[in-house]
Write a structure and sequence with these properties.
Layout: H1 2-21, E1 24-43, E2 49-58, E3 65-75, E4 78-87, E5 105-112, E6 116-123, H2 126-131, H3 137-140, E7 159-166, E8 173-180, E9 193-202, E10 205-215, E11 220-221, E12 224-225, E13 248-260, E14 263-275, E15 286-298, E16 303-315, E17 320-332, E18 337-353, E19 359-361, E20 377-388
Length: 389
Amino acid sequence: MKKKLLAVAVPAAMVWSVGAHAQSSVTLYGIVDAGLVYAHNAQDASGANQSTLVKFNSGGLSGDRWGLRGREDLGSGLAAIFQLENGFNIGTGALGQGSREFGRKAVVGLTSTQWGTVTLGRQYDPNVDLVQPLTEDGYFGGIFATPGDLDNYDNSARISNSIKYVSPVLSGLQFEALYAFGNTAGTVGAGQTFSGGLAYNQGPLALAASYFHADGGRTTANNVRTWTSSTDSLFNTVINAGFASAKSVQIVRAGGLYALGALSFGASYSNTQYKRDGFSSFGSDAKFNSGAGFVNYRFSTALQTGIGYSYTSLTGPTSAHYHQISLGGDYLLSKRTDLYLVGGYQKASGQTLSAGGAVIGAEASVGSYGVNSGASSQAIVSAGLRHRF
């Protein structure tokens, strides 16, 4: 009996010793962002069209969040990592991302200086990791996003039940790949997501491209698909609500950024396709093509300004066009606290589909602010205070 107890005790002591000497850390971090929004042409809570909307705004530039990030060194350049990130509305205290406790991100994984990083859980896809930082979203948020964020320009969607690999940076190149399980019995493909991306960053030049595919699942109501995918729904505004019964979403994105002292400028392109099948309420695949460009100028270490333009076209079951111009200014009060003022104007033309599948006139909805206009044009101005901790 003593020999058996000793055989158990020795390995246990070895595990404790390794754990006691391993270097580990846990960091609490977050962003709190609040302000006001003025919109010309907006719908009220009942869906009635109003010419003016003034409201308190949560997360005007950055989504409000708090999180925990941890790391344990395992030796030989290998470490265990985790990240739990909660999103919330600072105006009401309500949870964001569908009332999830850690809706923004929840991952655990291993990272190696030589082999790269593998994470498992709910996380961002390569499009968000690699292409988004090269767009104006990285500076001034969703006011510059593609109308309705139909191509996940402003990371409206996260990916659940996913595994992601991120390569080390080699001569400026980095690669990412992600796969997410639909967790549907009887079929592997239902609700699955897969994505990949490649980025190059050397000196003042940065380039990136990505591919994304999400299956809409097999859940239906009255013989029409309801989105049940490992990817969150992107059908959040009048821009693309008529295509929420899509069999799948496919997004190809590319972007580039060049910095020249206080001046920086960039451009991006996306092709987004909402594929249909027999459970879709629209008659042919919907294709959105969007191009955007921006110029930023930093007047001082504290003051940054930017202007951008985007054009989006819809072809397929209907034809619609969206022109959008956006402006931004950000002033640093300190390294952690800033004041911002951003605005956007959008003009829509042509026809699209309503959430019920009816053909309607195209309506404007600036960026990813999610404010339906009920009209063919909309202007939004947002001002606020942001603090990082």
